[in-house]
Design a protein that fits this description.
This protein is mainly beta. It has two domains: 32 residues; 119 residues, PH-domain like (Roll). It has two helices and eleven strands, in the order E-E-E-E-E-E-E-H-E-E-E-E-H. The longest helix has 11 residues. The radius of gyration is 16 Å and the shape is globular. This is Transcription factor.
Length: 154
Amino acid sequence: MSEIKCPLCGFAEQTPDGADCCPRCGTRLAGGEGEKKLLEAPGTFTTEDKQFFGKMSTSASIYLTDRRLLAIPEKLEGFNLRTGLTAAAVNKMTGRYGAVSIPLEEIQAVRDGKLGLLQKALVVVAADGGVLKLTLPKQAQWKEAILAAAPNLH
C-alpha cells in the first residue's frame, strides 16, 4: 500500500501499489503526459435530469484541463419532496464520488442560462445530449476558456 496524491484534484488516499489513476477524478498518475489544469473554481452543478432538475444542486470543485471539463462533488444539497429522496440517498445510489467529466472533444455548445429562477448559470451541452449547468465565479472567463479549449467550438 502506498499513498497517492492526485496532481489535479489533490485527493490523497492509501491505494494498492501500482494504482495508475486517481479514484476520485480519473486522472492518470503515472506514465505519459499529465493533464494541464487551465482553470479551477468552487461552484455548483446539476444535470438536466427532469426528476431532480431545479430541486438539487451539488457543491463541487470545478476544473477545466487541456483535455476535459470536470466537476467533483463535495456533497449533495437539497431534498426532493416529490420523491422523498434525500441527498445522502442519491449520493449512495450514484456512486462513490459522482464526478462528472466531459472530454473537450464532446462539448457541442456553451451558453449562458439560469439555474432556478434567478441564479445565472453556464450551460455546457455534450455530444450525447447531456447538459451540465454550472454556477461559479467569473462565468464569462470560464465561457471564453471553454470555447477556446474545445476543438469543436472554433
